[in-house]
Write a structure and sequence with these properties.
globular; seven-stranded mixed sheet; Jelly Rolls; about 35% strand; mainly beta
Amino acid sequence: MTPQEMEARIVRYGDLIPCRTAFIDAHTPGSDQKENFTIIGGGVSESPDQHVHINETPGFNIGAAGQPPRVRNSLHTHRTAEVFFILTGRWRFFWGRYGTAGEVVLEEGDIINIPTGMFRGFENIGTDYAMIMAVLGGDDAGGGVLWAPQVIEEASAHGLVLGDNGALYDSKQGQPLPSGVQPMPLMSEEQLNKLREPTVAEVVGQYVARYPDMMAHAANAPCDVIGAQALIKDRPGFEVDLITRNSLSVAMYSVPQHEIIMIMRGHWRLSWEGGSAVMNPGDTCAIPPHLLHTIAPSMSGEASLYRVRNTADKAGPTGALL
């Protein structure tokens, strides 16, 4: 693989292209300044304006959300896994029918595997623009987002309507629903009553891993973060580990599955038969199967990255295959 071919598989943090109209709450006060990024795969964006950096999916999607302080992502749920790690800033995750069932605050490097089957939202509670990185289960990311009824109703009051075809239409821009397309129906009371509202202790104990703890686990070997026997036990169609300066051999290796490298801290040199490239915090690289490669810190100081690999497990509800 030539350096040019590999560079096409690296999405640089500084080259990320945001979409500010990705979801139904794009006009809703308090959510109208958020930015959505689709890095690998189309994610769950509802907008034709969304730029996709790498179309090929390895059984999951990689995305990101960037938000100024006190901007929130509205209550929604997914059919497959939604995993976030905090790249920058300080974030509050909240959940429940009205977002009041519980909340947890995550700091830089922390990771959360938000359970499927419950409404969740998140808010930047820091003092600066901040970014969280996401892994979504499935090549089609579960077929889209299911919004809390009040989110759809409030969005309609601000001109945005979600069609039952999964596309957004902006009445303020003169976009009526096409012939044959109806507004997305609200979830029924029966469906709403089936949604989960776990306690804070359940979420923190089973679905959250803290960066300092993972760094300690990764002192001499990669820390298994999400997997059947990992800190967060789940089999969502992918596995996640955290790698530090001392936990990865510098010897060349290859694996039969896709390997996605997402830099958390420090500067790393990715080397392969054919060239090398330096990756920086926020950069993402899609390494193809069977490619001999290695990655090692290129400078002194703290260095960490998340590595995501696809597995043979089918994407589905959180914990369904355990």
